[in-house]
Structure formats: C-alpha cells, structure tokens
Amino acid sequence: MTSIDTAPAPSTVLITGSTSGIGAATARALAAEGWRVVVTGRDSGRGRVVVDEIEADGGRAVFLPSDLTGSPAELRAFAAAAVDAAGGNLDAVVHNAALCPAVDSLTLTDDDLDATLAVNIRAPHVLTAALVPAMIDRGRGAIVVIGSWMAHVGHPFVGLYSATKAAEIQFGRSWAAEFGPRGIRVNTVSPGATRTPINAEDGDIIATMTGGIPAGRPGTPEEIAAAVVWLLSDGSTYLHGAELAVDGGITSTRSA
C-alpha cells in the first residue's frame, strides 16, 4: 500500500507586494491559519500597519522592505534577507507583486516597460531560483503565483500587464513540472476584477465590467486570499500546475 505524506503543512511564507490589497489580505489570512508571514513592499508605513494588524490578532509577521525592480544580484540579496526574516527557513512563496500601467502600447513609456517586466517577470523568476533549492533539500515546499483573468483575453489598455501575467501563469506550469517531482507544489490563482485600493477610483468601471458575470459583482481581496490559503494547505496536496480562476466566472463566460 502506498503511504500518504501526512507531515505538517509549511509554516513560513514570503508574500511579495503584501502591504495592501490582495497581498495584505493573503498575509492576514495565512497568519490566521498559523503561518509566520514575511510581509514585503516598498511602503514601510503600510507594511508596518499590516504587521501590526496581524500581531494584534495573535499572528506572527515581520516586514521586510523590497524593491523588485532591482538587479538580479539585489533580488538574490532580498531572497536571503527574507529567509533570515522568516527565522532561517522559508516553506512557501506567494508571487503577488505586480505593476499594471493602464495605458495602450503607443503611450507606454520605456521606464514603465522596464519596471513592469522587472517586477512581473524577472523578480518571480530570480526569487524562485534563489529560494527553491533549500525547499528541494528539505523535500517539500510550495509556490503560488498570482495570475490574472486578463492573461486570457485581449484588452486595449493593459496589453503589457496581460502579457506578463500570461508569462507568470506559464512559469507556474513550468515550475510545477520542474519542481513537483522534487517535492515542491506550484499552482496559480488568477483573480478576476477585484476591488483593491489601487482601483478604488474606478468603481463604476469595475461595476460595469462585472455586472453581467455569474457572480454579478467584483471580487474582494479576501476571496482571493482564501484560495491561496487552500493551495498552501494539506487539503490540496494533489494539486500541481493548476490555475484557479477565482474570477466570478468572468473568464469562462465573458462575451465581450
């Protein structure tokens, strides 16, 4: 009879871009489940607020400032610092940070192009390559990529963002094939139109976008976070290389 691994779930997690929105909600949700969370982002003030909220609820968290537009060497130094902040051991990574310049291809600046490619593609790749070897040595670990429903449709104003999210989703599939046999589970959560502080001023647009989908409304960061929590739990141990469309049905039923 084949034995089933019943070892405890990982307990330390790095979440990039976790000072607000989906990342912050994920940090709070995982902390509530007993994880020690490394909260990261560019805004130290917002990062400390998230950590304070987690600790006030009895959770464990630490803030580590990050600039994911940095060079590969700087990203590898950040990865090492994240391991130290986690107490010397990182069991899981959530690649959440992303830039989304809401402009068309003709008005996209060179600086925005470079920064978006750096944060959305280069950083996840370099950080994964830096952090996965230790997971492989231990024989277990998990990675969750935050994709997007926009990776599956054409859009006139966020073509670069959509393309980078498609690349990240493919990272998730490829990493599952590469690292799964060595004990590392990799999966993707692709949110739909979700209300976050970033799009707070676009409420009417988001309401119109989601009015005709099965859910009939935008998503919340907490709903996306719940999917990440499940993917990092012992309840999803047979899931490898999957993409969960937590999008209210917008991808599968979108007609225009």
From TrEMBL:
The keyword Oxidoreductase is assigned to this record: yes
Gene3D superfamilies xrefs: NAD(P)-binding Rossmann-like Domain (3.40.50.720)
SUPFAM superfamilies: NAD(P)-binding Rossmann-fold domains (SSF51735)
Keyword Oxidoreductase: yes
Keywords: Oxidoreductase
Pfam families assigned to the protein according to its UniProt record, in alphabetical order: adh_short_C2
The organism's place on the tree of life at top rank: Bacteria
Known EC number: 1.-.-.-
InterPro entries associated with the record: KR_dom, NAD(P)-bd_dom_sf, SDR_fam
Every Ketoreductase domain range: 11-192
Enzyme class: oxidoreductase
Molecular function (Gene Ontology), one example: oxidoreductase activity
SMART domains found in the cross-reference section: PKS_KR
Family: Belongs to the short-chain dehydrogenases/reductases (SDR) family.
Protein name: SDR family oxidoreductase
